[in-house]
């Protein structure tokens, strides 16, 4: 019976030709994890709310087990063409960052380098060889930038194929934002969850009066909603407890530095004032960009909070219904409502647009992203 059901599940899930092979691979990986999580969800109803005995399961320990399984599902459901493109961009960006760091090291090394070294002094570099290495690294960085530009266009098309109303400027902001990988992962997970829940609804309808099978499908649907909840909560936590905290530190440091620089402008000799004024301008740019960055992250956080609250309402109803299920009809009705909710939520998956006042601020945004990522 189980073999027949699994065959039916595969046939229905992948009846559509569009990206069937990739979705089939995702389902092959996520299905055993979801099945185990559904079994744990069923067991949850038979354990106490809490237990003093660390070796005895309670609802909290079962929930921890379920969340561990669902976190594994998140990694799998985050697989998409869009995620692969973003990963390729990130790899090029990291290589460019490494190139810039190496160039900075070489410029320092060049200051003490000899004009010429003997052929047998293989461990030494002369000025010419250092210049050649710098030129090669700078060329590689330029090549990376061109490849990133092409991949941004590819990412734009992939997002539009999902029905997202985005322009190139939005995608560029996403690509260079410290939350870019998380944003792409959320969109990928959301769309894979939406596709699978639609098919689970169809399977539940086909299960008819086989209430245990219908309940099993509904349990998977319930846990897919919980996956979205977990993902959104992780995103909110990262913004609140990591990135906004780091930005506050950057702003505080820049404002303290600006105060010192302003004092210097007033008190130092005239010949140094232009230097201090230039420094103050750069410090103000960093501070203003950091404040704009914080506003961007807060807007994205608000978007995700709105999405989480909508999913939370559906999840609470789904979990309660799963635990008290009486017939397949009520399950199908609630799944339709949840799927309609996911369709309405599609607009909330589009990241916010960040408007830069000038090119300098845009470049500073990229630099701040590197600082925020490194901590």
Structural account:
- With 375 residues, this protein is mainly alpha-helical.
- It has 2 domains: 2-77 and 162-374, no CATH class; 84-161.
- Helix content is 81%, strand content 0%.
- The chain has 11 helices and no strands.
- The chain has helices spanning 2-13, 20-44, 59-77, 81-111, 127-161, 168-176, 180-207, 211-267, 270-323, 328-344, 359-374.
- α7 (180-207) runs antiparallel to α10 (328-344) and α8 (211-267) packs parallel to α10 (328-344).
- The longest helix is centred in the middle third of the chain and has 57 residues, at 211-267.
- The protein starts with a helix and ends with a helix.
- Residues 1-18 have low confidence and may be disordered.
- Residues 1-20 form the signal peptide.
- Keywords: Signal.
